[in-house]
């Protein structure tokens, strides 16, 4: 997945444009810029890639999730349904707004289980945050139908799935709002950065103002701006956007390499009868950022994960034992270790975490291994890796 592996002249040229005129900020300073508006240009490129009406760049993927929810009016005391398997950013972004993350089980897509979502809906539910984990997607039709029936927002966190699609539509562009990250390990990178995408004019205007102190961005050179509402600073800088502008132009190449490398590994592993793969909904195409596979049980998965490390097969993750991506080890959330007081409403709202079990999520994540697909691997290197992985798995069964 990482764009950081392929960084070169194109990125340097875009960054140098910014360094040459010295305007590091994305807004204002119109007369000094020599026509360089890197953030605006990147928003346009992303808009045509996603075929979506509006793109708002922000400072990170985590900021994108917070801004998306805020733009749609999610705030104090509202419940947001999210999966047990994601990155910690999901609940951080919800709690920052004073809202309550309601964690529910995933299914064999490794994304939200529609039945678990439906069972978790209450009067307070405002949004469903569908995390398109590891380059694939949840059951889009079932989840969309639930949101329509219950009048809930569907927010897609597609931070790990740029380039994936469902029935021809880009992942991230299907829900009411979509969120992307361009941090250093994502498929394309700005160093740090993120984006909110939407076809809704009001959400876009809200995201635009909210991510820059509530400024309305009316007129040139920031002269006549007013503040229709309160905001924060989640701006991206021109330097970061410049890197992204080079990377988005290379994205089709990156996706091609990802798919080639993924396919070689998958075809090799598919020869082992005990290995199975996640379900990808019909009509869905993964971004191929990760290859996820299931082993028969936890014990074998732990053994394989350990043996992979021993044998130099890196970037394969057993998320069940990892602290970043799965509820089992999120003690800081379960124990509510906060630097500052948390509202009683949120505390009460999170009490379910003391007792709730997630057996269905465990049954998938315990057996899952997720291999990052690198762009820098040559075809020969991927084939050698595939052989080693097959040997290691067979010896561990
Ligand atoms: C990376 C990531 C984020 C957060 O993005 P940052 O840019 O690192 O803040 C959010 N959600 C998911 C699923 C991610 O993988």
Automatic annotation (TrEMBL):
Family annotation (SUPFAM superfamilies) = PLP-dependent transferases (SSF53383)
This protein's record includes keyword Oxidoreductase: no
Which GO terms are recorded in the biological process aspect for this UniProt protein?
A: polysaccharide biosynthetic process
State whether keyword Transferase applies. Answer: yes
Q: Which InterPro entries match?
A: DegT/StrS_aminotransferase, PyrdxlP-dep_Trfase, PyrdxlP-dep_Trfase_major, PyrdxlP-dep_Trfase_small
- Which UniProt keyword terms apply here? Aminotransferase, Pyridoxal phosphate, Transferase
Instruction: Tell me where the signal peptide lies.
Output: none
As for family, the record states:
Belongs to the DegT/DnrJ/EryC1 family.
What is the protein name for this chain? Glutamine--scyllo-inositol aminotransferase
Organism, scientific name: Flavivirga aquatica
Q: Identify the taxonomic lineage of the organism of origin.
A: Bacteria, Pseudomonadati, Bacteroidota, Flavobacteriia, Flavobacteriales
């Amino acid at each position: 997945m990482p764009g950081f592996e392929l960084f070169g002249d194109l990125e340097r040229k875009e960054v140098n444009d910014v360094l040459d005129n010295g305007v590091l900020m994305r807004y204002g300073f119109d007369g000094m810029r020599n026509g360089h508006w890197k953030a605006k240009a990147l928003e346009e490129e992303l808009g045509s890639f996603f075929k979506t009406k509006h793109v708002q760049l922000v400072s990170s993927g985590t900021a994108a999730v917070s801004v998306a929810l805020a733009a749609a009016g999610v705030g104090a005391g509202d419940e947001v349904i999210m999966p047990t398997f994601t990155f910690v950013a999901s609940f951080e972004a919800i709690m920052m707004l004073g809202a309550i993350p309601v964690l529910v089980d995933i299914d064999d897509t490794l994304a939200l289980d529609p039945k678990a979502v439906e069972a978790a809906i209450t009067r307070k539910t405002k949004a469903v945050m569908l995390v398109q984990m590891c380059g694939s997607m949840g059951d889009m039709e079932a989840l969309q139908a639930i949101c329509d029936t219950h009048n809930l927002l569907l927010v897609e966190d597609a931070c790990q799935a740029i380039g994936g699609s469902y029935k021809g539509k880009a992942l991230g562009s299907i829900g009411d709002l979509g969120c992307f990250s361009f941090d250093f390990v994502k498929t394309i990178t700005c160093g740090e950065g993120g984006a909110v995408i939407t076809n809704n004019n009001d959400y876009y205007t809200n995201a635009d103002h909210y991510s820059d102190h509530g400024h309305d961005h009316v007129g040139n050179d920031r002269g006549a701006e007013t503040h229709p509402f309160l905001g924060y600073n989640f701006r991206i800088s021109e330097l970061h956007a410049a890197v992204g502008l080079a990377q988005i132009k290379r994205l089709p190449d990156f996706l091609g390499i990802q798919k080639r490398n993924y396919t070689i590994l998958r075809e090799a592993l598919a020869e082992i009868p005990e290995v199975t793969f996640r379900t990808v909904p019909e009509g869905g195409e993964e971004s191929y950022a990760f290859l996820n596979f299931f082993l028969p049980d936890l014990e074998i998965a732990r053994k394989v994960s350990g043996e992979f490390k021993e044998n130099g097969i890196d970037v394969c993750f057993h998320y069940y034992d990892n602290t970043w991506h799965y509820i089992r080890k999120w003690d800081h959330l379960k124990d509510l270790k906060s630097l500052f007081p948390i509202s009683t409403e949120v505390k009460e709202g999170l009490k379910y975490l003391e007792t709730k079990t997630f057996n269905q999520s465990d049954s998938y994540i315990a057996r899952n291994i997720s291999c990052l697909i690198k762009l820098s691997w040559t075809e020969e290197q991927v084939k050698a890796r595939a052989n080693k992985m097959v040997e290691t798995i067979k010896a561990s069964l």
